[in-house]
Amino acid sequence: MYLVEREAQLSELAERIGPNTAGRGExxxxxxxxxxGKSALLQAASARARTQGWKVxxxxxxxxxxxxxxxxxxxxxxxxxxxxxxxxPTAPTELAQHLVALASAEPLLLVVDDAHxxxxxxxxxxxxxxxxxxxxxxxxxxxxxxxxAGSHDSRHSVPxxxxxxxxxxxxxxxxxxxxxxLVRNRLDRDPAxxxxxxxxxxTGGNPLLxxxxxxxxxxxxxxxxxxxxxxxxxxxxxxxRLRPSNCPALTDVxxxxxxxxxxxxxxxxxxxxxxxxxxxxHVLDGLTAGGVLSPGRVLHPRVRDVLTGAMDHQATxxxxxxxxxxxxxxxxxxxxxxxxxxxxxxxxxxxxxxxxCEAADxxxxxxxxxxxxxxxxxASDGCTDDLTRVEVHAKLLDITWWVDPTLVSRRxxxxxxxxxxxxxxxxxxxxxxxxxxxxxxxxxxxxxxAMARAGRPGDPETRIELAITDFWIRxxxxxxxxxxxxxxxxxxxxxxxGGFPWLPSASELxxxxxxxxxxxxxxxxxxxxxxxxxxxxxxxxxQVALFSLLAAERLDADGLWSIEAAVEAGGTPVPALxxxxxxxxxxxxxxxxxxxxxxxxxxxxxxxxxxxxxxxIMLGLPRGLHLLAxxxxxxxxxxxxxxxxxxxxxxxxxxxxxxxxxxxxxHHLATGGxxxxxxxxxxxxxxxxxxxxxxxGLVPWRLDLAETLLLLGExxxxxVRIDEHLDLFPAPHARSRGIALRLRAMxxxxxxxxxxxxxSAMVLERCGDPLELARxxxxxTQTYQLTGELNYGRRTLRRAERxxxxxxxxxxxxxxxxxxxxxxxxxxxxxAVRRPDPAQPAVRTPVAQDKSAAAEAPWAAGGPALTLAxxxxxxLAAEGxxxxxxxxxxxxxxxxVEQHLTRIYRKxxxxxxxxxxxxxxxx
Length: 923
Known about the structure:
By secondary structure, this protein is mainly α. The chain has 46 helices and 5 strands. It has a 5-stranded parallel beta sheet with strand order 2-3-4-1-5, sandwiched between helices. The longest helix has 18 residues, at 386-403. The two termini are 86 Å apart.
């Protein structure tokens, strides 16, 4: 062992054992904790004494091979026998005198390592020899543990030896500088700061442990690494140091400290190992002085791992159970107690099941679902009565559902049976009903929820669970009869304001999707999303709010994206269902912004995160959205293949399933199956009317039905459906209103058609859907052609085709060209659209950018540049808009439009409106 920070002690020892001290003896005692280099110091001092002509007689050591007792008498007798060829005396007094006589011829250094372990005869011998030190050239050099540091075995101690002619040397672990010096000497390099920090943390500066770690680094060729190597040498040193064969007390204390881990205190150790306080204090002081234990009586995790890994199963189990009991008595956190029960794989105590369940709840709140499941499984094994076991199974189902909803089907069946037998409380009946509803098992959900309501709950927690289940079932199964509120289920504000501030709004929301004004829907949904947290407790409320905003066409609502920002900035793991539903919501927004490729990417990301069975009752939304987007991209064969995949039988009982039903109808409509489309759209309408529900943003069934009826030539019924939609949803800038205005114009006489289409275009431009705008411009192109306004028609057609291409709208482009081709045999100018790769983002020009680009576009050769405002007016006038329509689109007065046109005519040197189109280059 390298001697570091021991130079002063070695120098003084060498001086006291020098040539000038041979005439008389001295008692030299080296005291230090185990592993701090006592043996190395004695060996170095012995070597120096030999160079000074001293005869050295060494007994005991080294530290890692500590015997049960040090036999000094036996070792001295053997040495005398070899030196004199005679039989030495056996009595301590005569043997001491014999040794003194031998030293008269040659100065003698008797070195006794671990003198505190000397047997009684050896102790008497050393005491007798000490009486001759004043007159004999005999030095006694011994090592033992410092009394103040404690010892795991202290039969004798240095104070038993003579105080005259005595010098003591004490030291402890290395300082930081000493660690640096030792590493530099051993690895032949300056260690990194991080390496020194880690070495100090693990070893406390104990040279023996440090040397073991450095041995592992050298043995593995990792001398250049800036982190310790924990190998065989370290493990062996820890076990030999902390589990010595001659001291069961130290072994018990070290293993108990390893099991208790960060929860270790001196009091808890005393109760776990049942050791007398004085003896325990003695052992702990020794470990602390040696750097192995921190001042707080805690072992480093690396040391704990070595000790616990070497313990046999039964010993570990016994200590774990005892540690759990001690921690429970002290009121320690449930998680700390449950950790020991889980490691022991047993929960025999009557309080253990409750502790495990509490710890499982805490683990679930940290999103550590696997750990929570393990705790609940152990709790289930420890249950002694059936009612408690059923409650634990309900908890286990609840948390397993968050890991994988498809794993709970079998357990759901068992719990439904238990519910029918009256084995579940109202709280768990409510949660079970929600899980059944999520899986589409509507009738069973209703049955179980009725049981929960019949229980007349009194505690606030159960009332809250009932309220959450109530709005969730009303949301996913709006066609089910809704019972009146149960007695005693009322929620006072103080019950929900802390953990569930969104609950009053969520309870109202399912009943607000009835058509008419959408402001109440938006207000309640935003209240929920601004207060909801991205965790399992708030999922149902957030999902109801998101769906309601999407269904009500409030895609610009602040709450819709506030929850996404909260998820991104949370810094904690977010349940996959949260991430998936936000991705689907983004897909809806992309589709209504004319980006079907973006919708495909968002939905496929959501379905990759959660495969189809895990979506449960909500599967219709992502699958239907996927089909709608692919239909817009013209991927009809792929849509047909997707439609051949089965959907759950219950899908049409939920509004989420109607999105899928609508998507199927849109596919039939796009591929010429008009009657099949008509049936699907009528089914959507019949179902929604029976529910007294309207979903214009997701299932605008009246408009889909009207579009189909127009293609079938049934204009009267189409107009009725369109007018119904416009009456129900009067919002001036809603996307569905722009579509409805286009359809109403198509059903109107030719004389009124162009004005209606231009109004539709203005609404769609304002709401930001260039794909539907392209469709409207396509119909407007046909109208201009039919009314002989061919210049307007050509310009409008070019713009319609450009928008459709930029959006990747293969189907829309085909519709636009088909409309134009009905009136002319020549194909429309412009390149053919290439079907977009769904994996690539669509290249799309926003509408505002389109306006600006057109306004700032170059004009006919020789024409002066117009201002931005004049350019906007010129473009709209060139497309056939009236002055009043232009004023409404640009939010100016008709007089302002007339003034702009006057300046435009003067700058372009034209006299009438019909000449304007020839001078405007609409890109």
